[in-house]
């Protein structure tokens, strides 16, 4: 059961925030409101009138629009096509629609171009297209499911300005987030959901983040904060002038990584901040050997790995927590013990020589399940039947079991509930004390700042800035992520020390 | 949830045990459900077809069963099933990693032709000759399918299309060389390669009334090798990983491109074996009348057997049984073409039944896992913060 | 550490080059067609293979292209909605069978309608399996091909080959339906003769153009005209109407479509049914043009249609081009065999030489060298022989497809959600 | 299944002893009504049924079948007591040879092939001689002095047609040009693809050829159709008298003549010999001399050149002209 005994009342013309931990059932609730899922029981009333929503079409007809947590856009279609889809009756699919889109875009300052392919847009632009889609349908009630998860603080501010604009036009906004600061800053009312049910309705004025957090999880939010430094002198990973270009489907060559150089020492966590799509994923894949760089060298613990295969790198001591666990981390239809073998098939206890060691793998899977608290009835169930957090714990357990020298962790706690989040952070901290080097990529700036010993900012395929996590704030980091600042970001009175951009080696 | 939960494996409460037991029962039931469902559906639909054409289905089934049980029928069925089985294996190697080798047909024909041409020209003593021919066939089959593998990895061309094209091209290549004065000789109105020397003749089991071809041993061996390779070796794990999820396999260190080429080569090598029972045990030459189309039958059988060596053996025998007994129907006043309908219906029913059952099973398992964890949380997790949802609501 | 930061001082990484997407505009297309015509007529003049551009050749090419084009167009409909359709071959079989069955009783027009229905029936089976039951699309397609083959063969024995039945008396048998009357063809009066006359003079370019046009106005089946209409109609329906936008969105991003109130199942069903209907019409065309259904009549054209669809980059114009090329090669090998294909060696050599130049300019020396050597080999081959083996001729359409795919497949773009299972309400 | 297949167990033949069930006729993939030699063979059994009162059972091959399938078909006949068992088409060559060994008391016949066996009657035809006469007629009737030959599949059998035709044309009109082409180099589809034959014939007609002789089984209908659309052009049929075939009735005014292969006579001879308990065995060549092949005269289109044709026939029968079985390179 994802939702039970939900009571939610939203006033017209307000921004209503819905918060709760991962998997609390927020998205499910909103999908019910939007007609994408059917409730087993209960009623929905709109302006006092009871309504039955059987499909998104019904909801749209009643002026409800939704921006999904995961973008619902067709990459190969243009912004115009994405917008008019399903609402062709309104203004046609040609010039009329184009004019209408321009009009809405201008009215709310969305700044979208109707004829570009969505494929070519960045995340913030895509989000604006999503909002445009909803407005185009004349929605009076907007549901935004975690719209800020992928935005940098400055973009979040712009978004909130848009929301206030909408509110002033008399629109109702339901806004989902588990970032408490945001919630408090923009919402008129707040409803908290926990384990599929509403536990509280509060007003932002009289509430502190701490109170909200307790409502959400029943205790204080765990913190990724790491105080003591475990950085040693030995250099473990050296990436030197790595360059990578990719050819897209039209044969256009794009530079995705440009002159990337950094080092990570034993016991050090290097955090890379950046808006998604600026090359972090490619950097990880280049270090993992999934992509072949055009130039540059990668040295692990004194061994040049630039030409090695992914398998050789893994055997050489790189552990990998991929960004998209369903795509890159697991075989969803395979049992847990086969997933334990994945990525380490050449190593003990998974194989002996060229043959698999099924008994060994099974036994070790039992151990991981126990040690890493993977909630599962057994190791024969498929990975797909585990919850996301438990899948992630299995992956972390698997990678840690081979005592990596370097861990590449991409968004290690994305979509994971707070309990599992704390566990994963603790695992990383513990291994770091033993001398593990970590390359951490995360969109969660608190996590990034909390866990890292060193911070770098990536923008358009380059490392454009560095920062000291002890003093930096998310806002300062955010402005570097948009390219507004570069060089060494010091926590001076103002947000950014742009002078460093010219000075470069001021430190 | 808290970080200090007791490990679930420590001691399971009775409720969890009960759920686990029922899950195990479900697994067995589901395993049986798919084939049963498919067979029942296929029989029902085939019977309807019989009835619709005004025939008595049960008399027909009776005739087929009766004719199939004679020893000569069984020998025939086994002999006929061997190439089918080998073809299915070739297709299955690809299927296990989501590669669709429609080109087995062209591969085995080209392979058999090459082996026949070489076999007619050289005569090594004893078993050497047979080994040579089999190696040549596997090599040629592998090369022909390897082209598709290479085009896929280097140029990104779908193997479905290339193998279809290569089938036609193989036919033309054979046609070019299978001419008087090139690699063939004229024998009445037939053209075929020179007869293989005695040393190329494969042994056979002296059964009654006709012998069972010795190549059945090779087929069984090939099935065993296939099973072992896929399920027990590192290579097999990599192969299955690519089949289950290409990006996950890539990230886990499998070179997907290399695997594509290797498995196309393996598939083609297996395809090379398909023509061998005919060449080495029956015709001893490759002529214009060399059997064609077994590659396509292999696809059907691989689907039928779910890529499992035993399942495919069953499928191959079933197919051969239908071939054999279908022609008997013709003598009893039915149209033997009904066999084609039955075969088609069986394949369609099997693929649908398996998909339905698989999905149902997955949903069932998810629910069970959820229930089980809930049961676990209720009984075993009392110490932590599991019950914090019972805390009084806070309203600000 | 800071030394590594110097890169920050440089400007940000270059954005993708503007205008990288090269669009084929109408002037370009016309230019390319004109260029091709000049090249072919030059080839005709040099090699003396007059059939290369004769009206008969183009007429034959057109009728060879129609069934393949219809299959390809059928594939396009299904795949644009995200359903891979390898069952086209089976749908064609059903179409040609239904056409044969209805045709001998009710004439060729009814046969065409029956072919459409027969193919749509195959589409329905495929849609039920893939859309409703979520069976892997390729698996379902293969199963459908097996079933269609069995069903048509069985029904043929029952309906055409029954001893003493009316069908048998009318000339049917186990493998073949009784013949049906001719479907009328159309010839533009005057124009056809005039063009024919010009063609006879073998003037450079003029006669060639007359040949091409003559093929298009002389003795053309009404079904061919219908097919051209279907291609144009498909383009407007799928790319210029809201129905088409919705249908394509099901192939690109079904979850987004669903979230906007599009009934994805309905569109997928519609697409696969139309797909079957088009393939069925292709099958019917085969039956109607030889006047009867025949076992094995489709001869793998469904698969070829699939190849032309990929070749044509999932666009109607591309499919038409692919089918036209295939039909051209097929007609040529059938009509005049070795000598004319022999002339094409020279054409291919010229193309390769051109490619070598282009590669050289792009500083891809290795590729340029390979192309140049291949061109030289072809020229030598051309000079030393006066025909090519029949087998090579027979294989030439397949080789051409393979070659084109190998050269250009990287530029092809399939619908994004193609072949992926979709369940209502199962999105994130 | 596999287990019981070893050594023991009863075979079908042991369990079902039957005798004298009639004549078993196994067709090649063209099927009974292929307007060609299958049909002619069927006609032979039909005559036998009427004149001798024998029962007849016919079975047809499937597309893409194997040697095992053919052997099974013949075996089934023999087991069920059919005698003689006749395979129509050279595809049955090997299978007749193999199965005949197992059933020494049954007589086997095969058309167009020469397998060996004590109880085998091989019926072969001098197609080249009949085709020679067609060549003579074509050379005399062509106004453009260009004639064409379309073969279904480029195999040894069809090459006999080509060789005879070409020689006949050359001997009659040395200036005439013969264009010989095949639909498929090596694919039985060639006997079953009228659309291809139509395109091929169209190509020939466009190049000025006005008489086309097609030896392509069912495909021939396509070339006859193409010819019928052109004024003054003639088609020459094959195997049966195609002028008289109902399926081709609307083109009959364009069917100059047909090279008739009297398979029916051969089949009838074999059945009759079996009925008289003196079964024919060995190779029997049905040539021009013995009336095994002939040139049809239906329609009367060749009446004007009949004297020259008769003269040519006489030369062949008397051995003055040797007709080659393989075309000149
Ligand atoms: N029909 C259903 N029945 C039972 N459980 C379901 C159903 N649908 C979803 N769930 C589960 O309910 C939980 C709530 O998921 P939901 O996506 O609503 O969470 P969320 O609050 O949006 O979390 P996040 O912050 O990660 O987006 C998940 O565990 C999900 O797997
Ligand atoms: N129909 C269902 N009924 C009951 N439980 C279900 C159903 N479908 C899925 N589940 C359960 O929901 C969970 C699905 O995992 P999902 O990733 O959605 O969880 P989640 O709540 O998001 O967890 P996490 O916060 O760890 O990501 C599994 O535990 C699964 O057993
Ligand atoms: Mg959510
Ligand atoms: Mg989740």
What does this structure look like?
Chain C: Its main location: membrane. Chain C: This is ABC transporter permease. Chain C: InterPro entries: ABC_transp_permease. Chain C: It is a multi-pass membrane protein. Chain C: It is found in: Cell membrane. The complex is a heterotetramer of chains A (507), B (396), C (428) and D (329). With 507 residues, chain A is α/β, with parallel strands linked by helices. Chain A has helices at residues 26-33, 56-61, 79-84, 88-91, 95-107, 123-136, 153-168, 180-186, 209-217, 280-288, 310-315, 325-329, 336-341, 358-371, 388-400, 418-433, 445-451, 474-481, 499-503, and strands at residues 15-19, 44-46, 49-51, 64-67, 141-145, 172-176, 189-194, 197-202, 235-247, 253-265, 269-273, 295-300, 303-304, 318-321, 351-352, 355-356, 406-410, 437-441, 454-459, 462-467, 487-489. Chain A folds into two domains: 15-217, Rossmann fold; 235-489, Rossmann fold (3-Layer(aba) Sandwich). Chain A contains 19 helices and 21 strands. In chain A, strand 12 and strand 13 (303-304) form a beta hairpin. In chain A, helix 15 (388-400) runs parallel beside helix 16. Chain B contains 14 helices and four strands. The radius of gyration of chain B is 26 Å and the shape is globular. By secondary structure, chain B is mainly α. A two-stranded antiparallel ribbon of chain B has the order 1-2. In chain B, strands 3-4 form a two-stranded antiparallel ribbon. Chain C is mostly helical. Chain C has a domain at 49-188 and 221-336: ABC transporter involved in vitamin B12 uptake, BtuC (Orthogonal Bundle), CATH 1.10.3470. In chain C, helix 7 (191-200) packs antiparallel against helix 8 (206-217). Chain D is of the alpha/beta class and 329 residues long. Chain D has ten helices and twelve strands. Chain D has helices at 12-15, 37-52, 67-79, 93-102, 127-141, 156-172, 194-206, 220-228, 263-275, 306-317; strands spanning 22-27, 56-60, 82-88, 108-111, 120-125, 146-153, 177-184, 211-215, 234-239, 255-261, 282-286, 293-295. Chain D has a six-stranded parallel β-sheet, sandwiched between helices. A six-stranded mixed β-sheet of chain D has the order 7-6-8-9-10-12, with helices on both faces. In chain D, helix 6 links the parallel strand 6 (146-153) and strand 7 (177-184). Residues 1-7 of chain D have low confidence and may be disordered. Chains A and C meet through helix 2, helix 3, strand 10, strand 20 and helix 19 of A and helix 10 and helix 11 of C. The complex binds adenosine-5'-triphosphate (2 copies) and magnesium ion (2 copies).
């Amino acid at each position: 059961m994802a939702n039970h005994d939900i009571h939610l009342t939203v006033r017209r013309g307000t921004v209503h925030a819905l918060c709760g931990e991962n998997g609390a059932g927020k998205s499910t609730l909103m999908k019910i409101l939007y007609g994408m899922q059917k409730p087993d029981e209960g009623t929905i009333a709109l302006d006092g009138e009871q309504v039955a929503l059987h499909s998104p079409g019904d909801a749209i007809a009643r002026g409800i629009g939704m921006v999904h947590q995961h973008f619902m856009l067709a990459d190969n279609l243009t912004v115009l096509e994405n917008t008019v889809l399903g609402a062709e009756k309104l203004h046609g699919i040609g010039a009329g629609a184009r004019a209408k889109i321009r009009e809405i875009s201008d009215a709310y300052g969305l700044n979208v171009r109707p004829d570009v392919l969505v494929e070519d847009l960045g995340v913030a632009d895509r989000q604006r297209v999503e909002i445009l889609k909803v407005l185009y349908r004349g929605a009076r009630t907007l549901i935004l499911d975690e719209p800020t998860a992928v935005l940098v603080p400055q973009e979040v501010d712009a978004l909130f300005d848009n929301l206030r604009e909408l509110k002033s036009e008399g629109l109702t906004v339901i806004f989902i987030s588990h970032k408490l600061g945001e919630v408090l800053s923009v919402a008129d009312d707040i409803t908290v959901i926990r384990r599929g049910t509403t536990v509280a309705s509060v007003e932002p004025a009289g509430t502190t983040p701490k109170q909200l957090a307790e409502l959400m999880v029943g205790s204080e939010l765990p913190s990724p904060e790491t105080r003591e430094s475990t950085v040693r002198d030995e250099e473990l990973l050296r990436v030197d002038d790595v360059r990578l270009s990719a050819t897209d489907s039209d044969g256009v060559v794009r530079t995705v990584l440009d002159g990337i150089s950094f080092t990570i020492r034993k016991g050090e966590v290097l955090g890379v901040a950046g808006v998604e799509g600026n090359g972090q994923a490619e950097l990880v894949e280049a270090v993992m050997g999934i992509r072949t760089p055009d130039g540059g060298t990668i040295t692990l613990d004194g061994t040049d790995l630039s030409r090695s295969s992914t398998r050789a790198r893994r055997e050489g001591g790189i552990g990998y927590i991929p960004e998209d666990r369903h795509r890159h981390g697991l075989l969803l239809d395979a049992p847990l013990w086969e997933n334990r073998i994945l990525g380490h098939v050449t190593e003990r206890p998974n194989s002996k020589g060229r043959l698999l060691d099924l008994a060994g793998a099974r036994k070790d899977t039992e151990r991981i399940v126990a040690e890493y608290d993977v909630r599962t009835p057994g190791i024969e169930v498929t990975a797909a039947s585990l919850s996301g957090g438990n899948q992630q714990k299995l992956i972390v357990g698997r990678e840690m079991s081979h005592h990596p020298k370097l861990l590449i962790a991409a968004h290690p706690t994305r979509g994971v509930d707070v309990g599992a989040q704390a566990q994963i952070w603790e695992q990383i901290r513990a291994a770091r004390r033993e001398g593990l080097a970590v390359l951490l990529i995360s969109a969660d700036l608190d996590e990034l700042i909390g866990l890292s010993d060193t911070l770098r900012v990536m923008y358009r395929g380059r490392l454009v800035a560095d920062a000291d996590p002890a003093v930096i704030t998310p806002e300062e980091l955010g402005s570097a992520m948009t390219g507004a600042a570069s060089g060494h970001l010091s926590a001076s009175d103002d947000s950014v020390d742009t002078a460093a951009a010219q000075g470069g080696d001021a430190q | 949830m808290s970080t200090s939960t007791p490990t679930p494996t420590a001691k399971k409460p009775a409720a969890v045990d009960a759920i686990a037991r029922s899950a195990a029962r479900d697994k067995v039931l589901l395993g049986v459900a798919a084939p049963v469902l498919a067979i029942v559906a296929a029989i029902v639909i085939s019977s309807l077809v019989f009835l619709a054409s005004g025939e008595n289905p049960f008399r027909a089934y009776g005739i087929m069963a009766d004719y199939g049980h004679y020893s000569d029928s069984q020998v025939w069925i086994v002999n006929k099933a061997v190439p089918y089985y080998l073809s299915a294996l070739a297709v299955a190697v690809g299927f296990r990693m989501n590669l669709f080798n429609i080109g087995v047909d062209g591969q085995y024909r080209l392979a058999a032709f090459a082996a026949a041409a070489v076999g007619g020209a050289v005569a090594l003593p004893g078993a050497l000759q047979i080994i040579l021919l089999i190696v040549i066939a596997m090599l040629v089959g592998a090369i022909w399918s390897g082209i598709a593998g290479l085009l896929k990895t280097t140029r990104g061309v779908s193997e479905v299309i290339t193998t279809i094209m290569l089938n036609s091209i193989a036919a033309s290549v054979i046609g070019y060389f299978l001419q008087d004065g090139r690699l063939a000789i004229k024998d009445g109105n037939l053209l075929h390669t020179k007869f293989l020397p005695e040393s190329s003749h494969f042994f056979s089991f002296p059964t009654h009334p006709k012998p069972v071809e010795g190549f059945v041993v090779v087929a069984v061996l090939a099935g065993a090798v296939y099973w072992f390779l896929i399920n027990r070796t590192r290579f097999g794990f990599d192969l299955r990983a690519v089949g289950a999820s290409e990006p996950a396999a890539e990230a886990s260190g499998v070179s997907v491109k290399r695997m594509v080429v290797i498995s196309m080569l393996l598939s083609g090598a297996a395809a090379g074996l398909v023509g061998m029972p005919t060449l080495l045990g029956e015709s001893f030459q490759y002529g214009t009348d060399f059997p064609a189309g077994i590659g396509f039958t292999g696809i059907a059988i691989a689907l039928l057997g779910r890529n499992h060596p035993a399942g495919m053996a069953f499928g191959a025998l079933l197919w051969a049984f239908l071939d054999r007994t279908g022609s008997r129907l013709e003598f009893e006043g039915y149209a033997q073409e009904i066999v084609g309908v039955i075969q088609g219906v069986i394949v369609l029913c099997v693929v649908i039944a398996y998909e339905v059952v698989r999905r149902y099973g997955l949903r069932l398992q998810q629910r069970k896992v959820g229930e089980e964890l809930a049961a676990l949380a209720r009984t075993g997790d009392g110490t932590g913060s599991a019950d914090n949802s019972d805390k009084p609501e806070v309203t600000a | 550490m800071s030394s590594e930061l110097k890169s920050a001082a440089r400007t940000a990484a270059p954005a993708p080059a503007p205008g990288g997407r090269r669009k084929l505009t109408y002037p370009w297309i016309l230019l390319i067609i004109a260029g091709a015509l000049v090249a072919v007529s030059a080839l005709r003049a040099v090699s003396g293979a007059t059939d290369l551009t004769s009206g008969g050749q183009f007429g034959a090419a057109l009728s060879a292209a129609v069934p393949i084009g219809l299959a390809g167009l059928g594939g396009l409909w299904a795949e644009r909605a995200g359903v891979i359709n390898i069952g086209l071959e089976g749908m064609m079989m059903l179409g040609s069978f239904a056409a044969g069955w209805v045709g001998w009783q009710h004439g060729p027009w009814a046969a065409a309608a029956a072919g459409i229905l027969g193919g749509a029936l195959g589409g329905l089976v495929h849609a039920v399996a893939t859309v409703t039951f979520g069976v892997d699309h390729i698996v379902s397609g293969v199963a459908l091909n097996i079933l269609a083959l069995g069903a048509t063969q069985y029904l043929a024995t029952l309906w055409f080959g029954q001893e003493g039945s009316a069908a048998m008396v009318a000339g049917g048998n186990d493998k073949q339906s009784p013949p049906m009357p001719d479907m009328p063809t159309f010839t533009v009066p005057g124009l056809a003769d005039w063009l024919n006359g010009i063609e006879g003079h073998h003037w450079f370019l003029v006669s060639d153009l007359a040949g091409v046009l003559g093929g298009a106005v002389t003795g053309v089946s009404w079904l061919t005209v219908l097919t051209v209409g279907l291609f144009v109609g498909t383009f407007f329906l799928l790319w210029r109407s809201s129905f088409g936008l919705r249908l394509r969105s099901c192939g690109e991003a079904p979850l987004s479509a669903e979230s906007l109130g599009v009934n994805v199942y309905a569109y997928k069903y519609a697409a696969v049914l139309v797909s079957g209907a088009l393939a069925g019409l292709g099958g019917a065309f085969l039956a109607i043009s030889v006047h009867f259904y025949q076992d094995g009549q489709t001869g793998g054209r469904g698969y070829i249609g699939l190849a032309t669809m990929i070749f044509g980059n999932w666009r109607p114009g591309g499919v038409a081009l692919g089918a036209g090329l295939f039909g051209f090669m097929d007609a040529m090998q059938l009509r005049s065999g070795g000598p004319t294909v022999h002339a094409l060696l020279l054409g291919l050599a010229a193309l390769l030489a051109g490619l070598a130049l282009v590669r050289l300019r792009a500083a891809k020396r290795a590729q340029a060298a390979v192309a140049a050597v291949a061109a030289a080999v072809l020229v030598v081959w051309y000079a030393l022989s006066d025909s090519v083996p029949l087998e090579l001729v027979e294989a030439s359409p397949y080789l051409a497809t393979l070659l084109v795919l190998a050269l250009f497949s990287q530029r092809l773009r399939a619908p994004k959600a193609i072949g992926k299972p979709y369940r209502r309400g199962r999105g994130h | 299944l596999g287990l019981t297949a070893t050594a023991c167990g009863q075979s079908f033949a042991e369990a079902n002893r039957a005798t004298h069930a009639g004549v078993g006729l196994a067709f090649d993939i063209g099927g009974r009504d292929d307007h060609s030699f299958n049909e002619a063979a069927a006609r032979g059994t039909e005559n036998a049924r009427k004149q001798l009162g024998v029962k007849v059972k016919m079975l047809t091959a499937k597309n893409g079948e194997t040697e095992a399938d053919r052997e099974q078909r013949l075996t089934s006949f023999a087991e069920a007591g059919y005698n003689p068992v006749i395979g129509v088409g050279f595809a049955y060559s090997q299978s007749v040879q193999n199965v005949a060994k197992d059933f020494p008391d049954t007589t086997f016949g095969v058309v167009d092939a020469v397998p060996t066996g004590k109880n085998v009657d091989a019926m072969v035809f001098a197609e080249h001689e009949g085709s020679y006469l067609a060549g003579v007629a074509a050379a005399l009737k062509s106004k453009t002095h260009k004639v064409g030959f379309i073969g279904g599949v480029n195999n040894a059998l069809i090459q006999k047609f080509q060789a005879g035709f070409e020689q006949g044309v050359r001997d009659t009109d040395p200036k005439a040009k013969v264009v010989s082409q095949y639909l498929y180099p090596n694919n039985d589809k060639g006997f079953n693809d009228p659309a291809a034959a139509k395109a091929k014939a169209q190509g020939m007609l466009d190049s000025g050829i006005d008489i086309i002789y097609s030896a392509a089984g069912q495909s021939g209908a396509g070339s006859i159709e193409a010819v019928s659309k052109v004024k003054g052009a003639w088609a020459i049929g094959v195997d049966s008298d195609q002028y008289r075939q109902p399926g081709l009735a609307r083109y009959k005014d364009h069917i100059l003549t047909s090279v008739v292969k009297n398979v029916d006579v051969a089949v009838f001879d074999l059945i009759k010999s079996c009925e008289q308990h003196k079964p024919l065995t060995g190779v029997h060549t049905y040539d021009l001399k013995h009336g095994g092949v002939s040139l049809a005269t239906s329609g009367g289109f060749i009446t004007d050149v009949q004297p020259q044709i008769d003269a040519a026939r006489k030369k062949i029968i008397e051995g003055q002209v040797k007709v080659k079985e393989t075309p000149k390179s």
